[in-house]
Protein: histidine kinase
Organism: Flavimaricola marinus
Amino acid sequence: MTTLNEAQIADLALSAHPMATLVVDLDGAVLYSNAAARNAFGLTQDGAGAAGSIEGWGLRRMPLPELLRAAAISSNWIPAIFYRGDEAVHARARGMRAKGGGAPLVLITSVADATTQFQLHAKQIRELNMQVALYQKKSMELEESVAVSKVLERELVHRVKNNLAVVSALLNQQARSSGDEIVTDALKSAASRIKSIAVVHDVLDRNQQTEVVNVADLVVQLAAGIRTTLCPPRIALVTETQMAVVHVDVALPLALLVNELVTSAITHAFVGRPRGRILVTSAVEGTEVEIRVADDGVGHPSGAKGAPREPRLVAALVDQIGGSIDRVTGDGTEWVLRFPSDPQRAYSSPM
């Protein structure tokens, strides 16, 4: 086993140290250099162990020979920045005695470059600021894009509402000019259904929304439209509503449902009656929205075997919104429609 003395251990440690360390004479000839120094100063070690000279390096404050002479007789460290072209080595120098009492030598070691570290940190900060500025710019562009998209969506809702209203008006006009009662009834029914879809878009347009509808507003406006176009003066159409917000995907079939139930009551409930009353209510019951359409008339027609018959489209529309519908008879007829509320979906775009 090989035993190393303290000098050998120190030499090994210095050779592997990341801080550049070299010893030069007063002419700049390199007498010792570790790997870090050879790399920093671009020195090449020959077979005899010599590593060239640092004469090719200069200083900005004084000539290299002057620094070496000053450092050789100083026991304090003298800071120095060595330059060669675009290269720079931040170091310090001080004197050291030569063996055998010869001319003093100069010990040079590198030091951490505070300026370089500061510049590096400043560069990183600038890059981060650029990234933040880019993020803010993209965020603003995205917000502007979303705002434009919302405006376009609201404009589309407005135009669809107007177009549906025109189609409904044309159908009503055609119904009035038709000489066939069956054709007239069919045209009025189609116009009423289209009008109910237009009401959904009208509620969206009034509230500057594109995704959610207040059920209370929807029921009130549906009743107002039916009262104007289909309901005779002898029948009172009354609404009692409670606010409930639903997504437009639910509001569209819901509007058709309410339209079907109310128009069916107008058509069948008051045959032979001088007057009548239809009450439409909306409320929130737990996790469900409940809509009731009740009349005080003679009742609705039954199926072939006496079972209550739902108005056309009702069953399909109830399935579409995932709800249920019940018919209660007594002093008139009451339809009770229940369907699940979905607050998370409905409030994705707050009113």
Summary: The first helix runs from residue 6 to 16. The two ends are 85 Å apart (CA to CA). The longest strand covers residues 87-96.
